[in-house]
Amino acid sequence: MKRLMMAALLASVAMSGAQAQTKKELVQKLLTLQQPGIEQVSRGLVERPAVQMMQEAGLVLQRQTAPDKREALGKQIEAEVKKYVDESVPLVRERALKIAPTTIGPILEEKFTEDELKQLISWFESPVNKKYQALGPEMQNAFVQKLVVDARPVVDPKIQALDGRIRVLLGVPPAQPASGATATRAPAASGPKTK
Fold first, then answer.
1. What domain range is 168 assigned to?
2. Total tally of structural domains belonging to the chain
3. Which tens digit of pLDDT belongs to each residue from 105-143?
4. Which residues contact 172 (CB under 8 A, 6 or more apart)?
5. Which residue, of 63, 78, 111, is where some domain finishes?
6. 63 lies in a domain?
7. Is residue 2 assigned to a domain?
8. Over 27-84, what HEC string results?
9. Is the pLDDT of residue 93 over 90?
10. Is 107 found in the same domain as 158?
11. Rounded CA gap, 132 and 139, in Å?
12. In 3D, which of 97, 98, 126, 119 has the Cα closest to residue 36?
């Protein structure tokens, strides 16, 4: 009887070990399917400070640089930013792909059953998901364009008031109405215009 129980216990341990291996393999496959998203996050981490610096540099160029020197200086800044992005994206992508299995992997392994992991993999590989992912940029663009148009009447007065308050705090003269490009108008340049 003891031998039978011992054999059952050993079989159970061996079976759970085989399941754990299968689960680990499923997690690895899921991480491979998520690689484009992981790479996108790493690119975003690199580009976010570059975009912010470009915006700040653009403001400085407009306010403190002679008009005849703006374009050349702007191109130099763009070249530096491009160099930074080109050098940094591969480095961060490599690290992101290296740490994903040790950070995302254990969470997936702990929170999902083997069956749920299989379902996730099936979803990621499904034609419906691929079609949905392909439509993502189109849906986002349509949404953003509509949101900009819809929010403009509410946000523009607040942006103008904020600009006025900041100018008072900085001791800078009020903005000229003819040059009044606001933050909500910038994204709308590619979308429909309202009057």
1. 135-195
2. 2
3. 999 999 999 999 999 999 999 999 999 989 988 998 898
4. 166
5. 111
6. yes
7. no
8. HHHHHHHCHHHHHHHHHHHHHHHHHHHHHHHHHHHHHHCCHHHHHHHHHHHHHHHHHH
9. yes
10. no
11. 10
12. 97
